[in-house]
Amino acid sequence: MKNSIMMLSAALMLGGVANAQKVVFDEYNLDNGMHVIFHNDPSAPVVITSVMYHVGSKDERPDRTGFAHFFEHLLFEGTQNIKRGEWFKIVTANGGVNNANTSDDRTYYYEVFPSNSLELGLWMESERLLHPVINKIGVDTQNEVVKEEKRTRYDNQPYGNILPVVKENMFKKHPYRWTTIGSMKDLDAATLEEFQAFNKKFYTPNNAVLVVAGDFDKGKAKEWIQKYFGSIPRGEEVKKQTFVEEPITQTIKATYEDPNIQIPMVIASYRTPSMKTRDARVLDLISSYLSDGKSSKLYKKIVDDKKMALQIGAVGFSQEDYGMYILYGLPMGTYTSSDLLKEMDEEIVKIQTDLISEKDYEKLQNKFDNNFVNANSTVEGIAENLASFYMLYGDVNLINTEIDMYHSITREEIREVAKKYLNPNQRLILDYVPSKKVQN
């Protein structure tokens, strides 16, 4: 009886949280195909103007990788009406901040301004779209910036090349096989005309979604959006290519030597389905159960109890076409990578064989409820989520309803999906080891 009352109380409390977190939004299309989403939140005197373009590293040619990420830098160089080097000065002088990020699937730009600068933010994003200056000095400058970023984040960073090595082994046909930062050789070989053609193809209003979120007047916002974006010509429709990977049917084995490390790492990576699928959401629960935090099954068993590893963890890459679930471990003392892999596999087999306990299931649901609340706790987070759910999922209201999908997943589904995707013959085993020069 006591447990029933506690469960009912928890359900009522979580229902109240979910209702309080409901994100209200409006959306419409401009005649040129640009999609617009409004989210009004007067709780703080700030407003976000953001634009997401449906272009990422998967849209690049195999011999011209890195273009999408390069444009994330290049399009801050300036426009016909914003002099080179002035972009950040304008934002700062008006009390704002801005940034951008790129993934395999999309590129996202945003400004956060005081509410009275909404028109400025809209004008700046329209300038980026309509009047970018793509010239040799900008390309040469950003080429050096990107090279330094690659050196810092990949080449000279301990364990910095895990993702590139995993991706190139997990994908043979799909452009996910290269990293978002791309190849410096490809960027060096590219002509100015190729950069300009990339911009013309992908930076069009009909390949973008504009989000305005925060404290603003909708009538004024619509007026300014029409003024600054409405006249931008529609671009040619971007035809997305489809790349189908053959199923992995036997273990892929690979070794990579990293001169920046002294402790080896074992990595087990599984290819997973599109983030838009129900199975991908089930795998999210499995990932959290196994490896999210110090109370997870793998950490508690291998690090805390058996003291076999310095660290155990996982990274889930949810992507538009395929995903990856990457488990990793750093062996400690006399234990080896093989020892860690054996322990990992035992926990996976348990999920495939037995139902997880009711207690663990409730803990998972509570954790995802908490994630849901945190994801929509700031107006900046809401703006990016609105853009992503429209652009990559095709359903803006998932910002409110995706949590219901996680609630509907059963313990039986967790067992069946683990059986479907997390098998030894369906994965990459990567021995990520110190360079022999370091060992000597």
Automatic annotation (TrEMBL):
<dbReference type="GO" id="GO:0046872">
    <property type="term" value="F:metal ion binding"/>
</dbReference>
<dbReference type="GO" id="GO:0006508">
    <property type="term" value="P:proteolysis"/>
</dbReference>
<protein>
    <submittedName>
        <fullName>Pitrilysin family protein</fullName>
    </submittedName>
</protein>
<keyword id="KW-0378">Hydrolase</keyword>
<dbReference type="Pfam" id="PF00675">
    <property type="entry name" value="Peptidase_M16"/>
</dbReference>
<keyword id="KW-0645">Protease</keyword>
<keyword id="KW-0862">Zinc</keyword>
<dbReference type="InterPro" id="IPR011249">
    <property type="entry name" value="Metalloenz_LuxS/M16"/>
</dbReference>
<keyword id="KW-0732">Signal</keyword>
<dbReference type="InterPro" id="IPR007863">
    <property type="entry name" value="Peptidase_M16_C"/>
</dbReference>
<dbReference type="Pfam" id="PF05193">
    <property type="entry name" value="Peptidase_M16_C"/>
</dbReference>
<dbReference type="InterPro" id="IPR011765">
    <property type="entry name" value="Pept_M16_N"/>
</dbReference>
<dbReference type="InterPro" id="IPR050626">
    <property type="entry name" value="Peptidase_M16"/>
</dbReference>
<feature type="signal peptide">
    <location>
        <begin position="1"/>
        <end position="20"/>
    </location>
</feature>
<dbReference type="GO" id="GO:0008237">
    <property type="term" value="F:metallopeptidase activity"/>
</dbReference>
<keyword id="KW-0482">Metalloprotease</keyword>
<comment type="similarity">
    <text>Belongs to the peptidase M16 family.</text>
</comment>
<feature type="domain" description="Peptidase M16 N-terminal">
    <location>
        <begin position="36"/>
        <end position="178"/>
    </location>
</feature>
<feature type="domain" description="Peptidase M16 C-terminal">
    <location>
        <begin position="190"/>
        <end position="367"/>
    </location>
</feature>
